[in-house]
Amino acid sequence: MSPYVLVARRPQNPLGWWIYLPVFLLAALLMAWMIAGAGASLAQLIDGLPWIGDFLARMLPPNFSYIGANLIGPTLQTIQIALLGTLLAVVLAIPLSFLAAHNLSPSPVVYHFSRQVLNVGRGINEIILALIFVAAVGLGPFAGVLALTVHGAGMLGKFFAEAIEEVDRGPIEAMESAGCSTSRIILFAILPQVLPAWLGVALYRLEANIRVSTILGMVGAGGIGFELMTTMKLFEYENTAACVLVILALVFAADLISARLRKLVR
Rounded distance, CA 253 to CA 260, Å? Predict the structure, then answer.
């Protein structure tokens, strides 16, 4: 038997268990503050359950004939909005990400300015952006594309910049010592390291854009969301249920395809 024995003891708290009491009280006060500010009420929710049941009952059975006659075009338009919005967001995010990465930005002023541009882009909700662009370019899918582009560029630019900041400096220093140009360093030392992460984030963004684009139509930005809002305003709840089913199928398909593509990227 070994003469050395490892003994593990639980660390002793000299102040006792009551030292955690202020933490629990603070957590309880914070929870009460959040509930009061949000107006959360379990009784109100229970009172509203019959109205939810009544609304769902009006949607049954769904009008499946409405899908083939009215929803194929808007569904394809929703996919087009999401794809184009994601593509344009990537195009804008790539140059901004190099300026917003502290290890590649030409100066602190450019770095902080680029960071704030990205913050503004992703800080404004897509629906608010869609309302702004609807006022600028009119009703239709183009306003939705612009909203997804601006918000997506802000989000993707941040993640792209963080991926650039985490690259291995070894290949970069080797190419710098060999006298390579900045463009060659970016092309052969940085992009191979960040491209898998970029593709993964871009696919996540595409998946999110498909979900968001179904909502943008509710504010006049085209797609199946516009049909959803129209059927609700006309109290055609069976057609509303058909729209909801198509949206769910679109989201599930986008999630499945995105997961397969991310697996291929890895």
Answer: 11
Question: Nearest Cα to 212, choosing from 138, 151, 139, 253?
Answer: 151
Closest by Cα among 154, 128, 88, 155 to 216 = 128
Each residue's pLDDT tens digit, 156-194: 998 888 888 887 777 777 877 877 777 787 787 788 888
Q: Which residue, among 206, 252, 235, 218, has the nearest Cα to 59 in the 3D structure?
A: 235
What tokens does 72 get? 């194929």
Structural domain spans, the chain: 68-265
Nearest to 60 by CA among 239, 247, 190: 239
Using CA atoms, how far apart are residues 79 and 68, in angstroms rounded to an integer?
Answer: 17
Phi, psi of 138 (to 5 degrees): 95, 175
Helices (H), 69-190: 72-99, 108-123, 126-137, 141-165, 169-177, 182-185
Give the pTM: 0.77
């009952």: which residue's tokens? Answer: 57
Residue 219 to residue 13: CA distance in whole angstroms? 57
Which pair of structure tokens corresponds to residue 264? 């291929």
CB atoms within 10 A of CB 139: 14
CA-CA distance, 112 to 205, in Å (whole number)? 24
Q: What is the fold, at CATH topology level, of the domain defined by 68-265? A: MetI-like fold (1.10.3720)
What Cα–Cα distance (Å) separates residue 48 from each residue in 42, 53, 232, 244?
10, 9, 19, 21
Q: Can you tell me the distance from the alpha carbon of 249 to that of 82, in angstroms, rounded to the nearest whole number?
A: 15
